[in-house]
Design goal:
The chain is about 45% helix and about 20% strand. It has helices spanning about 10-25, 35-40, 45-60, 80-90, 115-125, 145-155, and strands spanning about 30-35, 65-70, 75-80, 105-110, 130-135, 135-140, 160-165. About 20% of the residues are buried. It comes from candidate division CPR1 bacterium GW2011_GWA2_42_17.
């Protein structure tokens, strides 16, 4: 995979990809050193692009996706909560479908005082192709249990959300 390092999106994608590479090597999944970018891209960024690369790293830092540190004269990048959430969201698109008629069901009861959080979670489910069964019950035919559980924990709403996988339930035929 090649990255130009010119856009914040490509840098964030590289960080997420590097995180997976480090996980395979059983290294610290949250720390990234700049030489991994070069290793992943199989080339060193051109001098004219180094400024853009650093500027976009700072932009990702200001937007809350990453945290930058200098440690022993090396730049280290920590994936912040917002970046970890993006990583989890990206994994939703790659999840395989259940092949035996099973569904993942997400049911939630987020209090009215946290209406914004409730609406954001509902929007998240909608954007990730969950189907509305009832106002607070959503289903999907993809194997997303672990990813959704991780997202719920990162988002801090685990006390209000129930998840279960099922293959037996009846949906009314007169639903619009």
């Amino acid at each position: 995979m090649q990255y130009t390092f010119l856009s914040p999106g490509s840098i964030l994608t590289a960080i997420i990809e590097i995180r997976k590479q480090l996980a395979k090597q059983k290294l610290d999944r949250n720390i990234f050193e700049s030489f991994y970018f070069n290793k992943l891209a199989n080339k060193k960024p051109e001098p004219k692009n180094i400024y853009k690369f650093r500027r976009n790293l700072k932009l990702l830092q200001r937007q809350g996706y990453i945290k930058l540190f200098n440690h022993h004269n090396k730049m280290e990048i920590l994936l912040a909560q917002k970046g970890r959430l993006e990583d989890i969201k990206a994994s939703f698109n790659r999840a395989p479908k259940y092949n035996n008629g099973r569904y993942l069901v997400a049911a939630f009861d987020i209090p009215h005082k946290d209406k914004t959080v409730r609406d954001q979670f509902r929007q998240f489910l909608k954007e990730n192709n969950f189907k509305l069964l009832q106002k607070s019950v959503w289903i999907i035919d993809r194997q997303l249990y672990d990813q959704l559980l991780q997202f719920i924990k990162e988002y801090g709403i685990e006390q209000w959300v129930d998840l279960f996988e099922t293959d037996k339930f009846k949906i009314r035929s007169n639903r619009a």
